[in-house]
Design a protein that fits this description.
The protein is mainly beta. It has one domain (2-234): Jelly Rolls (Sandwich), CATH 2.60.120.10. It is 0% helix and 58% strand. It contains no helices and 20 strands. It has strands spanning 2-6, 12-15, 19-23, 41-49, 53-60, 64-71, 73-78, 83-87, 90-95, 100-106, 113-120, 130-135, 146-150, 158-159, 165-171, 176-180, 186-199, 202-205, 209-213, 217-234. The strands form 3 sheets. Strands 1, 13, 14, 15, 16, 17, 18, 19 and 20 form a 9-stranded mixed beta sheet that branches. The protein has a 7-stranded antiparallel beta sheet with strand order 2-3-4-11-6-9-12, with no helix packed on it. Strand 2 and strand 3 form a beta hairpin. The protein starts with a strand and ends with a strand.
Length: 237
């Protein structure tokens, strides 16, 4: 088993006034040659958007873009004709494919929006752009990890053009969990949204990340009540 620890305090950071953002991997004005990506996981941004502000209409192509709000409501519009509100408890995916324009805004006059935006390299280029959104409340389980993303439209959660599986869980102090990777050659990126856990002998705290590969399973011991995101992804782009 190989491991790479990504401490929260070592992330890139930019405060634009309307947007306070932390980058686990090189992004925009932040460049770290040792943190370009982890396998096909290209971007993991921890964003806070001020009231009445947001991202104006901008383009993307050939990227799988996953948005997970953890506080507030995000308004989405795109060139495919989709318009929706994404709230805590939802997960959204946009396959940019051959090209799409979209905007994301916080329309609330008082409350901030906090979210994670995740980009994954696709395994197919120039596909027809697509959009999907689900409520995690339909799939969540108490003190367990539950799947929120996969490569198949027939599986639980949203789906993307990549052999990747995401799981999430709010897990209790004192519990232990084993995650079995779904595909040979994949690695696992563990992201601590909240809490404190020991993962394969390493301490992880709020917003720490840990990449593991050349293994078939990963053991997690929960020290404090925690909220954890697991990203099971190919290591080869």
């Amino acid at each position: 088993m190989k491991k790479t620890l990504y401490k929260a305090e070592n992330r890139g950071h930019a405060d634009h006034g309307w947007l306070n953002t932390y980058h686990s991997f090189s992004f925009a004005g932040y460049y770290n040659p040792e943190q370009i990506h982890f396998g096909t996981l290209r971007v993991l941004n921890d964003d806070t958007i001020a009231p009445d502000r947001g991202f104006g209409t901008h383009p993307h192509d050939n990227m799988e873009i996953i948005t997970i709000p953890i506080e507030g409501t995000l308004t989405h519009k795109d060139s495919m004709g989709n318009g929706s509100e994404i709230r805590e408890g939802d997960v959204q995916v946009m396959s940019a494919g051959s090209g799409v324009f979209h905007s994301e805004a916080n329309r609330d006059h008082h409350q901030e929006v906090r979210l994670f935006q995740i980009w994954v390299f696709p395994n197919k280029k120039n596909v027809t752009p697509r959009y999907d959104q689900i409520s995690l409340r339909d799939v969540e389980k108490e003190n367990e990890f539950y799947q929120i993303l996969s490569p198949s439209p027939d599986d639980q959660g949203v789906w993307i053009h990549q052999d990747a599986w995401f799981s999430m869980g709010k897990v209790k102090a004192g519990s232990s969990h084993t995650y079995n990777l779904k595909k040979e050659g994949n690695g696992l990126y563990v992201f601590m949204i909240e809490g404190h856990a020991e993962v394969e002998g390493l301490d992880l705290n709020k917003r720490d990340g840990l990449g593991l590969w050349e293994t078939q399973s990963v053991n997690i011991k929960v020290i404090e009540d925690s909220w954890i995101l697991l990203m099971d992804i190919p290591m080869q782009i």
